[in-house]
Write a structure and sequence with these properties.
WH-like_DNA-bd_sf, mainly alpha, three-stranded antiparallel β-sheet, 125 residues, transcription, Arc Repressor Mutant, subunit A, WH_DNA-bd_sf, 6 helices, single chain, 2 domains
Length: 125
Amino acid sequence: MHQALSRRERQIMDVLYRHGRATAAEVLAALPGSPTDSTVRTQLRILEAKGHVVHETHGNRYVYAPTVPRHSARRSALRHLVETFFDGSRAKVVAALLGTDVGQLTPDELERIESLVRRAREEAS
């Protein structure tokens, strides 16, 4: 189930994934720009209502944590991106990635891509 996140919600999720768990004050301190405390708390409640985070009470503070491991969230977001912008075609995604920044790929990155393609071919046959 993929629910679209706003830019700020994605930033909050990134903070939570980096820290594992965090209070609203810790999230606020790690965010770019100058969001207010009440904005961050509201966004955390929204993320909780969407099912992206849960909280535990520690004293008088809520400690928030992601509900889904980062790798699962990444797969879900990528699947949504591929379906939405590339008509479900993984080949179109790769072409878009390689077409714009090919000169910026390191030899190690190119080798990794080649290895992934070889492995995919072996598994397909």
